[in-house]
Amino acid sequence: MSVSIDPTSVTTVSDDPAPAKGAKNEQALRPHAEDAFAQELQALAAADDRPRPARWKLSPWAVATYLLGGTLADGTVISPKYVGPRRIVEVAVTTLATDRALLLLGVPGTAKTWVSEHLAAAVSGDSTLLVQGTAGTPEEAIRYGWNYAQLLAHGPSRDALVPSPVMRAMGDGMIARVEELTRIPADVQDTLITILSEKTLPIPELGEEVQAVRGFNLIATANDRDRGVNDLSSALRRRFNTVVLPLPESPEAEVEIVSRRVDQLGRSLELPQAPDGIDEIRRVVTVFRELRDGLTTDGRTKLKTPSGTLSTAEAISVVTNGLALAAHFGDGVLRPADVAAGILGAVVRDPAADRVIWQEYLETVVRERDGWKDFYRACREVSA
């Protein structure tokens, strides 16, 4: 016997009524992708005349355009959400149009979560069917749980069942997301095997099952650089198409990514508008890339690599924090002193080893570089 779960049957109690899905919440600190870019999604849907897979809001071409950016026939500009090889996005979108799940793999800070969220928003119009992977994620987060008051009073029943985001996505034909899959314990990870291979979720307690309807698929993200990860079993990995998201190829591409994202975050956080800080952004990106690669940009000096990842996401964080410092405690202009402390915190993760690497970099590279004297002094002050 198979059964579909109606997510409207699950109720929650809150002091304040939540806004209806799709309604713009002006007070949200971080709006969901489908809310923040609702106008772009609507424009794409109106202009999209290509075939769409079952229950997709947009065609695969329009989904790729939403992520990579472009200009529509009516002049509407679609901002790029991902700056990188087009083929990577095309393979990811195509995977979701098949019966294969998608695994976005890469080192921390390569926009795996960002891409996952925007893919779900463009395909299903809802990026919130999310399981956040941690060392404590239980099996119920992927399968289903129980309302224990109902369970004790009436025994196992549909009313006592609490569907997981994955179960809801199966019943509604939507995209489910599992973030940090390798953080989840191995026995819980393998709960996905039946779902991905049979497109079915058994409910033994009721003698029933949930069968996925057309449009269902799953996006997982994972990285193997952090400590404490749980490797995927070969059986589970075979059920994914894996797409590796690389670090930005060039300094110019990384500067563009950081600048664009910092601007978005600044508007979201309502930071006072600051003058162009592109020089400091380029300096932060240069420091991160050189220490990450173990080589200066001119290729002349080899460097020791610190223990941190020094990802693009961390560069965005450093610059955003610097803008806040400049706006609230400075003259509104992003200066070396505003980013120096953030860079120190990102580089020096191991106080013993990384501090030595950072000091050596300051003295052998930064100190001798033309136009970097003010940056050198600012970094020396916070490193003392």
From TrEMBL:
Annotated region Disordered: where?
A: 1-28
Q: Which SUPFAM superfamilies match?
A: P-loop containing nucleoside triphosphate hydrolases
Give the domain of life: Bacteria
Secretion signal, residue range per the UniProt entry: none
Instruction: Kindly give the InterPro entries that the UniProt entry links to this protein.
Output: ATPase_dyneun-rel_AAA, CbbQ/NirQ/NorQ/GpvN, P-loop_NTPase
Which residue windows are transmembrane per the record?
A: none
- Ranges of compositional bias, category Polar residues: 1-14
Q: Where is the ATPase dynein-related AAA domain?
A: 102-240
Output the Pfam families linked to this UniProt entry: AAA_5
Which PANTHER family does this entry report, sorted A to Z? MAGNESIUM-CHELATASE SUBUNIT CHLD, MOXR FAMILY PROTEIN
Protein name in UniProt: AAA family ATPase
